[in-house]
Every structure is written in C-alpha cells, then in structure tokens.
Amino acid sequence: MTGSKALKSEQAEKKHILVVEDEEDILALIHFNLSRAGYRVSCATSGEEALRLVRAHLPDLVVLDLMLPGMDGLEVCRTLKKQPDTARVAVLMVTARGEEADVVAGLEMGADDYVTKPFSPKILLARVQAVLRRGEKGLESPADGKVIQRDGLLIHPGRNEVLIDGQPVELTFTEFQVLRFLAGRPGWVFTRYQIVNAVRGDDYAVTDRAVDVQIVGLRKKLGAYGSWIETVRGVGYRFKD
User: Fold this and answer.
1) What is the pTM of this model?
2) How confident is the model at residue 111 (pLDDT cuts 50, 70, 90)?
3) Most confident segment among 180-184, 194-198, 200-204
4) Which of 137, 156, 180 is the last residue of a domain?
5) By CB atoms within 10 Å of each CB, which of 177, 200, 202, 207 scores lowest?
6) Residue 21 above 50 pLDDT?
7) Least trusted range by pLDDT, from 5-14, 62-71, 130-139, 218-227
C-alpha cells in the first residue's frame, strides 16, 4: 500500500458510520463497501435500535433508510436533530422513493444528503465522503457562535435556539441554519445556490424548490418577523437591513 493510500485508509478508519437498513441484502452490501473503504461500521435494522446505538456510541455519520418498520427514517432523523447531544451527527438518507417531496421532507428534518435506490457502491462512497468532508469543514469557530439580535428576535447559534420576545421558536435543523446565515448578513442578497453552499456545502445536490420550502417554513414560524426575509425577484433572498 502506498503512503497516500495508507493515510486515506487510516483517516477513514477513524470515522464511525451507523447503517440503518431493514433489508438484509442491502445492509450487507453497504456494510461490505464501507468496511472495505476503511470505515468502522455498526448496523441497525430498525429506527428504535438506531437511536439506542447512537446514544451509546455517537457515530460520525448515520446512513439512514427512510422506509423502516415501526419508527421510520424521517422520525429517526427528526429525533436526532432535535436533541442537542445528537444534533450534529451527519445523516445520509437512503430512499427507494425518488419523489422530490420525500427528499425535501428529509432535508427539512436536517438530513445532510441523500442517495436513491438502486445506487452503485461508488456513488454511495462518494456521498459518504462528501458528507464527512463537509462536517469537518463545518465545525464552528468561536466567531461563528456570536448571538444575533434584531429587536425582539434573538438567534443563539451555540444553543441552536431562536427566541421571539423571549419565547422559543421551534425550527428544523435546516431552517435554523438558513435563518442564521441570512440574519448574520442583513441587507446582503443571496442566490439559492449561495444559501445551499453556505448551509450544506458546494457539492450538495438540491433543487430550488427545496430552498423555497425552507423559506416558506421560516416565514410562517417567525410570525411578524417572517416579513424580514425578503424575496429579491429573479435573484434570491435577503434579511432586511
């Protein structure tokens, strides 16, 4: 093994991936390919088991099938992203349903990326590597944790918390990231691509529709402050200066 290959294998081996899949043949396929790539792999066949394993041994990434018996993948993702100790665990969705609505729903819950069945092992590994790479780049610096306050709206990045007149507002993981990005640069106009790039990374595949869904959800939950997120026709969005 060459020096570069040995280094890459050593780096991958340090990453712990939990695979959640109830179809045994697909579970075996994913486990084989991730293990061969040098990752440390755990497996679960249900949402309930997945949550137990995550809490016992926090993984770097969860490869999560959406169609699970009992608690489905979307509920698992929602649970992970709502709890402070698991909110930063990366999630790669796996779905046999190629409809945009399913993808958007997963993104709203805070998933980082997705692959659609059937998929090739090479595509899966590429997506896994991309999500893990974005996670390393996305670690917060002290400056990123600065509290943002505009009148009665307070955004606390360190706590993943939004308050309006002292009352908490429940946002999805992605909604919070979008709001934090826009509000942190009031008056600046950003395209949908720039918003996705800032929140998810520049190699993240997503449609314009998915960004619009996040904005619609934000405006509704922010009430009167929702109007502060302005649409710039033909360009994108900005937070009112």
Assistant:
1) 0.61
2) confident
3) 180-184
4) 137
5) 202
6) yes
7) 5-14
Same-domain check for residues 32 and 119: yes
Read off the CATH number of the domain in which 113 is found.
Answer: 3.40.50.2300
* Residues 196, 122 share a domain: no
Q: How many CA atoms lie within 13 A of 30 on its CB side?
A: 31
Query: Is the C-alpha dihedral spanning 208, 205, 96, 77 positive or negative?
Result: negative
- Write out the two tokens for 121: 């092992």
Asked whether residue 146 falls in the same domain as residue 213, the answer is yes
- At 7, list the tokens: 């280094």
Query: Given this model, what pLDDT does residue 137 score?
Result: 52
